[in-house]
């Protein structure tokens, strides 16, 4: 009875002119929007909503050697594929929530963003089929327009359906499924390319294009989930008087002038940390092949370790940080551990599984500890602007560093690139130390338990 009362509190209402409980008793539990079984179906659709986006995001990384050889581009040009994904999100991070709340609505918005992801991947694959690298870059740009905004829509659905104590777990499960998509990509796309190569009798840009087009199937699968989820949400709205989900974001760019030094330090930590993670993963497969003499399959497997570890650990670390608090301490541990991992990869020949495992643990911990800190240092009415700005400068940093990393690798090699990544992490450490002492002296930053956990 307690569980049923909680479910009715979450999704109250009635349908078909009958009292809600009477109408719901006429349908199976899996078809009743107020019942747990139905919400499990919705949760599965939410989790798979971003699967295609995350699977295809790292297609270039999984096929780095093939892209460079078949398209005849250097590493700097190759990294443009990641930069073009990030460029539109320098701006769209501010407006994705606005478009969902005020223009499209959550259901139509999710479908539109899913269509952008599908179209972007198809254009990307078509560019390879016709040996047009500029078209591949255009495809990544279109893909980026949908990718980040789709994540906003996914989180909005989660809040709409799972308000209350379940929400942290739902966010954790969504992040875990996203990392599963990235992991499958790293370990499968190389094999798909080899299979297509054997079937066609030779490698080349056509083989690459067919491989990427097969990857687009995952985006179509996610689009199907968006359509079904939209139907179920509309149905629940009719049956239970359930309102469309809202992001709750109020974006006011004028709030930027009121941001505190503590918040700017959090922004600096975010940028300096993530530019040493995602560009590294984008270039990691060839790094493991060249330095550690791994096969392509082995290199792809180890390059996916960060995502493999993140999938199960993100919900665990989210729960731990919720219970223990002390976010700054956890962020410091994550950043120092990441620096240790990069130094091991740069200056030792130790088994790279050790360093990559450390990287996976630290990446998961930082995601759970850093992002909730924004809520400690800004008023609630500025949260939408603060998070939008944080994502915006993160994407700006990723776009710039992706290009710079390619240039460094072409001119100086992997050792110098690892030193560069380590320097970025050192800047993040300095920012964490400054943040700690600044807020310790002011006595305004409460390193305490969070009431909610924002997942990256």
TrEMBL record:
Family of the protein in this entry: Belongs to the major facilitator superfamily.
Topology class, membrane: Multi-pass membrane protein
Catalytic activity: L-arginyl-L-alpha-amino acid(out) = L-arginyl-L-alpha-amino acid(in); L-alpha-aminoacyl-L-arginine(out) = L-alpha-aminoacyl-L-arginine(in); L-lysyl-L-alpha-amino acid(out) = L-lysyl-L-alpha-amino acid(in); L-alanyl-L-lysine(out) = L-alanyl-L-lysine(in)
Compartment(s): Lysosome membrane
InterPro entries cross-referenced by the UniProt entry: MFS, MFS_dom, MFS_trans_sf, MFSD1
Organism: Engystomops pustulosus (Tungara frog)
Keywords per UniProt: Lysosome, Membrane, Transmembrane, Transmembrane helix, Transport
Transmembrane residue ranges: 36-55, 81-100, 112-135, 208-232, 261-281, 301-321, 328-347, 353-377, 389-409, 415-438
Region called Disordered, residue ranges: 1-20
Primary role: Lysosomal dipeptide uniporter that selectively exports lysine, arginine or histidine-containing dipeptides with a net positive charge from the lysosome lumen into the cytosol. Could play a role in a specific type of protein O-glycosylation indirectly regulating macrophages migration and tissue invasion. Also essential for liver homeostasis.
Protein name, as recorded: Lysosomal dipeptide transporter MFSD1
GO cellular component terms, A-Z: lysosomal membrane
Entries under CDD domains matching the protein: MFS_MFSD1 (cd17340)
